[in-house]
């Protein structure tokens, strides 16, 4: 027999044996499709729409199943009951963070989004407390958002009712709000440094949601040895971190220990207090990473939701008219329902960030070993047909009861839930409400094409659901 053939057969047998031992060893993982050597189940998952692929697999294997992303077993939770049982009933165990190799190349386990264990608890506790001290959830931050909304309106007026791509204008507003908390200043909408970094974040969201990044995360060897868009992503993140470092250095030169001006000052003061602690988590590198996380997360999730929201309002002018009528009457029930429906419908974060179990756990008669990666399908919750009839249809009635009053839903999880819920959830809700309301108070929205011909299908559906580019006219009322 040809030596090459013998080698291939031998390697295949070793890999299959390795996979079998993983599936039947320490843990008794949930069932799932049989993986191929090296590739795992990657050929059964559409990298352009991972969420849809997981939904299809759940029909065959149920709400809890295992897929192999490369050689790594990953447990998938699909549907409200499974997600609730894991993230709420066993929240502490499922609070670990899974592997995200592309981003880990630059974060090195620091920051807040992709940290775990004690480091995550320390950084999250400090961040939440500091953000609250600077007005998060209070009247003071609402005043900042309202002021920024007025600035946004002025910029939209400058378009003079001509067609425009709203991407950057809708990104500048939430970015300025978070900048005022982190850097103690806002930027002019034409500031070249501001627009440069807004472009970086916007580009990164598209790259992170692309099929190539999903492949790189499953086969990390590609990151170091192959060209691709991940190189641009890493360069963009490095540029942003360099900018943040310069801001930190400026703060260090003018720091007043008794009068912190913003988030960076508070972190630097904490660093000074912990100088003698060899185990401290408060380092310059940690500060740069956490500011980069807050800067990005506090900008792109809100701006993308705003951009997608306006596209949906263009697509459904009857909904827009109803909301504008309510704004005039200062009632607001439908307005709140529309905001919830926008977030439900666009399904901004389809499969959440990867998680990991922090210890061995028996879950639904399966034994999931410590460290196993967990994927939670938020799509399966937000598009549950029992809770939201015709979930693929944009209908604010999903959040209205029979008498037309707003109704809450436990299935509304656009920010994840409990242990790993977005630290800026309150601010994001406030921004979405005030920015959209202010825009609709001041402008009629006009599409360049017949609303029926507008396509609202996301161009990417990986980490984030990225809306298609479109042109809009803001006609002053």
What does this structure look like?
The protein is of the alpha+beta class. Helices cover 53% and strands 9% of the residues. It is built from 17 helices and eleven strands. The protein has helices at 3-24, 50-61, 80-89, 101-107, 117-133, 139-157, 167-182, 192-208, 211-218, 221-225, 229-253, 263-273, 284-315, 317-329, 333-346, 378-382, 425-442; strands spanning 64-69, 72-78, 96-97, 355-356, 361-363, 366-368, 373-377, 443-447, 460-461, 465-466, 472-476. The protein has a five-stranded mixed β-sheet with strand order 1-2-7-4-3. Strand 5 and strand 6 form a beta hairpin. The model is unreliable at 21-26 (pLDDT under 50).
Task: Compile the SSE list and pairings.
Elements: H1 3-24, H2 50-61, E1 64-69, E2 72-78, H3 80-89, E3 96-97, H4 101-107, H5 117-133, H6 139-157, H7 167-182, H8 192-208, H9 211-218, H10 221-225, H11 229-253, H12 263-273, H13 284-315, H14 317-329, H15 333-346, E4 355-356, E5 361-363, E6 366-368, E7 373-377, H16 378-382, H17 425-442, E8 443-447, E9 460-461, E10 465-466, E11 472-476
Organism: Marmota marmota marmota
Main location: endoplasmic reticulum
GO molecular function, one term: oxidoreductase activity, acting on paired donors, with incorporation or reduction of molecular oxygen, reduced flavin or flavoprotein as one donor, and incorporation of one atom of oxygen
């Amino acid at each position: 027999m040809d030596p090459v053939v013998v080698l291939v057969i031998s390697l295949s047998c070793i890999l299959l044996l390795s996979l079998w031992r993983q599936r039947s060893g320490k843990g008794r993982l949930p069932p799932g499709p049989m993986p191929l050597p090296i590739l795992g189940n990657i050929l059964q998952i559409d990298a352009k729409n991972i969420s849809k692929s997981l939904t299809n697999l759940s029909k065959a294997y149920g709400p809890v199943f295992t897929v192999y992303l490369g050689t790594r077993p990953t447990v998938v939770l699909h549907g409200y009951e499974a997600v609730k049982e894991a993230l709420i009933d066993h929240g502490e165990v499922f609070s670990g963070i899974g592997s995200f190799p592309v981003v880990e190349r630059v974060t090195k386990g620091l920051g807040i989004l992709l940290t775990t264990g004690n480091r995550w608890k320390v950084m999250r506790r400090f961040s939440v407390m500091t953000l609250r001290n600077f007005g998060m959830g209070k009247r003071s931050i609402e005043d900042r958002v309202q002021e920024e909304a007025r600035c946004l309106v002025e910029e939209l007026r400058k378009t003079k009712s001509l067609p425009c791509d709203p991407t950057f204008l809708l990104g500048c507003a939430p970015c300025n709000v978070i900048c005022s908390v982190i850097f103690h200043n806002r930027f002019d909408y034409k500031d070249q440094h501001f627009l440069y970094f807004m472009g970086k974040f916007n580009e990164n969201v598209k790259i992170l949601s692309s099929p190539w990044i999903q492949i790189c995360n499953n086969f990390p060897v590609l990151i170091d040895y192959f060209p691709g868009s991940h190189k641009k992503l890493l360069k963009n993140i490095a540029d942003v971190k360099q900018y943040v470092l310069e801001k930190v250095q400026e703060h260090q030169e003018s720091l007043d220990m008794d009068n912190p001006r913003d988030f960076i000052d508070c972190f630097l003061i904490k660093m000074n207090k912990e100088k003698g602690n060899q185990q401290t988590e408060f380092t310059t590198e940690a500060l740069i990473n956490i500011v980069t996380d807050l800067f990005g997360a506090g900008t792109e999730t809100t701006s993308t939701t705003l951009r997608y929201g306006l596209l949906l309002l263009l697509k459904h002018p009857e909904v827009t008219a109803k909301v504008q009528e309510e704004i005039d009457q200062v009632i607001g029930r439908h307005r709140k329902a529309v905001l919830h429906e926008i977030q439900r419908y666009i399904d901004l974060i389809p499969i959440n960030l990867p998680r990991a179990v922090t210890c061995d756990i028996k879950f639904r008669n399966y034994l999931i070993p410590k460290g196993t990666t967990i994927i939670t399908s938020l799509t399966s919750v937000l598009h549950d047909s029992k809770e939201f009839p015709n979930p693929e249809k944009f209908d604010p009635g999903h959040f209205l009861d029979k008498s037309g009053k707003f109704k809450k839903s436990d299935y509304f999880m656009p920010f994840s839930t409990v242990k790993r819920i977005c630290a800026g959830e309150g601010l994001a809700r406030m921004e979405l409400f005030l920015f959209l309301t202010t825009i609709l108070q001041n402008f009629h929205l006009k599409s360049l094409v017949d609303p029926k011909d507008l396509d609202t299908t996301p161009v990417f559906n990986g980490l984030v659901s990225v809306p298609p580019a479109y042109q809009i006219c803001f006609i002053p009322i």
